[in-house]
């Protein structure tokens, strides 16, 4: 019983710990100390919904209708490209952590939701893969596996969002933000190209 839960948690964490657009945004918001609770909550809730959906059988539905993933692939690539352009523009005119204009909570939540749900890999990983692995545990243990995967998501996003605050002092110079924004832009561009070529 506990084995299924621990396996689910490790599987969930292995899939979400990979560097991507969502994690980069959570880290940036954590460093800026801007609406961190809302960002972390949206990420955790999104993962929970997708994991539960996949465990309940939506993974099989998505597998039967791959055209849905195709639409998400192009929408996700467009969004990542837009995010890359914004990051490059920020790198061209960097500002220190304390000097950056705050964003509205609704804007931050919308960006977090877009980075979460416009990424086709989240459906492949969280819905199809985790859903399939959960269902392989059998009817009695599949929900324990799913609960473990959700727990992994909660642990990761909490650590990433709130742990980033410890880096705020180190990352308070404009030069550092120039490099961070440029690196995020490159990462978003690479992810967009990978989605298009996938």
Task: Describe the protein.
The protein has 8 helices and no strands. The protein is mainly α and 198 residues long. Helix 1 packs antiparallel against helix 6 and helix 3 (36-64) crosses helix 6 (120-135). The longest helix has 29 residues, at 36-64.
List keywords for this structure.
198 residues; mainly alpha
Overall spatial form: globular
**How large a portion of the residues is in β-strands, by DSSP E?**
under 5%
The multimeric state of the shown protein is: single chain
Helix count equals 8
Rg, nearest Å = 17 Å
Helix content: over 70%
Overall mean pLDDT: 79
Q: What's the total count of β strands?
A: 0
Main β-sheet description? none
Termini gap: 37 Å
Write down the secondary-structure element order. HHHHHHHH
Structural class: mainly alpha
> Which consecutive residue ranges, at least 5 long each, have pLDDT under 50?
none
How is this structure best summarized?
With 198 residues, the chain is an all-alpha fold.
Please render the helix and strand layout as text.
Elements: H1 2-16, H2 21-32, H3 36-64, H4 67-92, H5 105-117, H6 120-135, H7 142-163, H8 174-197
Helix pairs in contact: 1-6, 1-7, 2-3, 2-7, 3-5, 3-6, 3-7, 4-6, 4-8, 6-7
